[in-house]
Amino acid sequence: MRARLSDIAQQAEVSEATVSRVLNDRPGVAPETRQAVLTALDVLGYERPARLRKRSAGLVGLVVPELENPIFPAFAQVIESSLAQSGFTPVLCTQTPGGVREDEYVELLLDRQVSGIVFVSGLHADTTANHDRYRALIARPLPIVMINGYTPNIPAPFVSCDDREAADLAVAHLVALGHRRIGLITGPDRFVPVQRRVGGYTSTMQRLTDVSDHELAELTELSLFGVEGGEAAAGRLIERGVTGLVCGSDLMALGAIRAARQRDLSVPGDISVVGYDDSSLMAFTDPPLTTVRQPVAAMAVAAVRALVDEINGHPSPHSEYLFRPELVVRGSTAVVRQAGAGAKPQRPAPSSLVVPA
């Protein structure tokens, strides 16, 4: 017990006597100190005394698919901050190829007796996945909240960016610049956000251009998310004569720019590129990336509020909260270059102009 007390005291940065008072539920300990000791118990994997379990469950799981795409650390940062302000300690679980799977992380979180879990772009967004895993959590009962990837058969709060409108904003921007051969690059179609993005792209192209349905199919490339997937898909679309590209993520857009440059094409001189997310550093790429911004802060705060309400016994409506994206115009899009001799060079779009949705 002495070794355990010392470990907990070191983790919580308090004395062993303070740890003992907390574990024995004695008075004379400040609330923030008591919470620090309980958090240290959880982090070190020690079981809380039975008298403390019900009233002091302070851990919340946060499951994200990866950290390579900067949009996921952005979500994690805001969620962690919001949870801390509500008195909860986040436990970040990050999936990697060949590493720990989502279900394994959930088991670890359940062993830690978490008060709830936030899933960001998890298996709930995959239409081919079995969603019984989430219904089982709700039946325990364990409060859960989902970010991006709505499915009506999971009775939980969902927070999403409006992917249809995101595609609409990107296409309308390129059409306004004179583009008609506009390609779409996004991820596998089994994901709900991808299906919505394709739907938004298709309907806006049909409304604003005279491109046929057959041409739309040729202008749509589904690939793997990431720089490499964007580069491969962009290469195929460039060979089909596109002048503008709408991408399913900022990383895919960076891959598209690389594909253009490998073919001695300039961005935006020959090809305009629009990303999605407005993740960190996109204003400082070469050229600065025009993109559609996810309202990460607002979405993350809403997800935490919904989860905390669920934990406190005030269930939020089990429906989808849709947040509107906004177009951020930078230097990767410009007026389409007209064919023929004497065509004037294009001017890059104004830097960092935010156009509200």
What would your notes on this structure say?
This protein is 42% helix and 16% strand. With 357 residues, it is α/β, with parallel strands linked by helices. The termini are far apart. The radius of gyration is 24 Å and the shape is elongated. Strands 7-6-8-9-10-12-13 form a seven-stranded mixed β-sheet, with helices on both faces.
Would you spell out the secondary-structure blueprint of this structure?
Layout: H1 2-12, H2 16-23, H3 31-44, H4 50-53, E1 59-64, H5 71-85, E2 89-94, H6 102-111, E3 116-120, H7 132-139, E4 144-147, E5 158-161, H8 163-176, E6 182-186, H9 192-208, H10 213-218, E7 220-222, H11 227-239, E8 244-247, H12 250-262, E9 272-277, E10 290-293, H13 296-311, E11 320-323, E12 326-329, E13 353-355
Parallel strand pairs: 1-2, 1-3, 3-4, 4-5, 5-11, 6-7, 6-8, 8-9, 9-10
Antiparallel strand pairs: 10-12, 12-13
Q: Care to give the gist of this entry?
A:
With 357 residues, the protein is an alpha/beta fold.
- How would a crystallographer describe the biggest sheet? 7 strands, mixed
Q: What share of residues is helical?
A: 40-55%
Q: DSSP strand (E) fraction? A: 15-25%
Per DSSP, the total helix count is 13
Element-by-element helix/strand order? HHHHEHEHEHEEHEHHEHEHEEHEEE
Tell me the strand order in the biggest sheet: 7-6-8-9-10-12-13
Radius of gyration: 24 Å
Structure classification:
alpha/beta
The rough form would be described as elongated
Alpha-carbon distance between the termini? 59 Å
The low-confidence parts are: 340-357
